[in-house]
Amino acid sequence: MLDLKFVDDLIPVIVQDVRSREVLMMAYANKEAVVLTEKTGYAHYFSRSRKKLWKKGEESGHFQKVIRILADCDEDCLIYKVEQTGAACHTGYASCFYRTLEGEIVGTKIFDPDTVYKKNK
Question: What is the reported pTM?
């Protein structure tokens, strides 16, 4: 593995659909998450708010199969190229980047988060 540069034990991860090249989300990973992602082939991240490791899709069923991981030239940011099951965004949109600065919705809603996450409330 490259000598990745983690800041406060985290590295930013940009997630991109391998086929459409659409940017789906941005999250953070710690070293354990990166290792688990490589080992399992499924995206793992570190939640800064919950302060814990998590596997994308563990609650929603909307997993990210990682096809390729790229590191930038400074080795301080990663891109996960993924095959996305369902939606990437916890709000139900296909991508977390579903609205403009003016608030216009430009993305596609895939699921109702109240239904999907109801069991977790």
Answer: 0.92
